[in-house]
Amino acid sequence: MEIVICEDHVTQLKAITEVIQKYALIEDNGIHIALATTNPNEVLAYAQNHKVDCYFFDIDLGHEMTGMQLSSEIRKLDPICSIVFMTTHSEMAFLTFTYKVAALDFIIKDEVNAWENKVLDVLKEAHKRYLQIGNDADVNVVQIKMGSRIRNIDHDAIYFFEASPNPHKLVLHLHNEQIEFPGRLKDYENLSEYFYRCHKGCIVNVKHIEEIDTSERLLTMANGSTCVASSRLLRGLLKKFQSKI
Fold this sequence. Notes:
The strands form four sheets. A five-stranded parallel sheet has the order 2-1-3-4-5, with helices on both faces. It is elongated, with a radius of gyration of 21 Å. Helices cover 31% and strands 30% of the residues. The protein has six helices and 15 strands. Strand 9 (169-173) and strand 10 form a beta hairpin. Residues 2-124 form the Response regulatory domain.
């Protein structure tokens, strides 16, 4: 679960970051702080190019953009992520309804121990929701398990699945990452119309195919990675690919 924090007070930003990092280290559940910043523009820039699962925002960011305005922009990008507000101004809680951002919680930063415990409580709830999303057939994500860690991957982020040299495992290829996990290819054949079994050992996301060399039966993906297609399945793949372009 990827987390982004935006808080204009550096000391408080550090404190929130440390609370979450300590919890993630103890639980070893894949929770990761992708970005912790005082600048809301950095958050928007990051969110436009990366999948984020949970945001922690101060309301008053000491910037022309408030935490509420930032959350409203985030909602346009992602309708299912969790958003948590942290502030010393309890009277501003009503703004979460005004901006219609469906916040997960509103934490008042008063006594140190109190808000730290509240952060942990809401973090557990956000992670619980994260796990539930991966089991929701209406949400286009693949949920994979790697030991004690569980990760949700958007369909659009997947380039291809291939059989691993290690028995009963698959390798999931993303733009700049490869993940090995236990699984069977047949479980991913019907993710969506864009996924195609091009070889007995490979299922490809047609959206990310850059080029098909029919003589070599070689697929080149948008990130430069390659996989092969079988002679028997090449014609169906070409039909899918041509309909995409």
